[in-house]
C-alpha cells in the first residue's frame, strides 16, 4: 500500500500480549523513522497505528544520533499511548480489550547515512495516503 517506504531499511516483528515487547522488538538504537502497527484479529489484518520516532524535525540537525534519546526503539517501547502508560505496558492491555491476537510491527529507517527524510514528514505523507484511501485515520491514531 505504501510504495514510498520501499527505499528504506526496514524490518518487522510480531508481538502477542503475553510477549515482552522489549524482547521481541528487533530495532537497534540510534535509528530514526516510523513504524506501522497491524492488528491480527479473527483472521483479519488491519493497520491500526502509524507513528514516528523523535528528532530530527529539521534537515541537518542531527550531528551525533546517539545523543538523541527518542530513537525508533526508545519511542516504540517507552513512548506513551492510551494514557500516560508506556507502549510496552499499554499494548498488551489494549490488545486484550480489543481481542487482538497479535500485532505485526513494520519499521522503516527514514533518516540515516543513506536517507535524510525527516520522520515527521514521512509519517504525515503516509497518514495522508491512508486517509485518502479509507477516509479516516488508523483507529489508534485517533485515540
TrEMBL record:
Look up the domain of life of the source: Bacteria
* Name assigned to this protein: Uncharacterized protein
Amino acid at each position: 500500500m505504501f510504495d514510498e517506504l520501499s527505499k528504506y531499511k526496514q524490518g518487522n516483528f510480531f508481538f502477542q500480549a503475553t510477549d515482552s515487547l522489549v524482547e521481541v522488538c528487533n530495532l537497534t538504537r540510534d535509528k530514526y523513522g516510523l513504524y506501522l502497527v497491524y492488528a491480527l484479529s479473527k483472521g483479519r489484518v488491519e493497520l491500526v497505528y502509524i507513528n514516528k520516532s523523535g528528532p530530527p524535525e529539521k534537515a541537518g540537525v542531527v550531528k551525533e544520533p546517539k545523543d538523541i534519546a527518542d530513537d525508533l526503539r526508545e519511542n516504540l517501547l517507552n513512548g506513551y499511548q492510551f494514557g500516560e502508560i508506556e507502549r510496552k505496558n499499554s499494548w498488551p492491555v489494549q490488545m486484550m480489550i480489543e481481542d487482538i491476537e497479535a500485532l505485526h510491527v513494520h519499521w522503516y529507517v527514514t533518516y540515516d547515512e543513506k536517507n535524510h527524510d525527516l520522520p515527521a514528514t514521512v509519517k504525515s505523507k503516509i497518514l495522508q495516503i491512508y486517509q485518502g484511501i479509507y477516509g479516516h485515520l488508523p483507529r489508534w491514531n485517533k485515540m
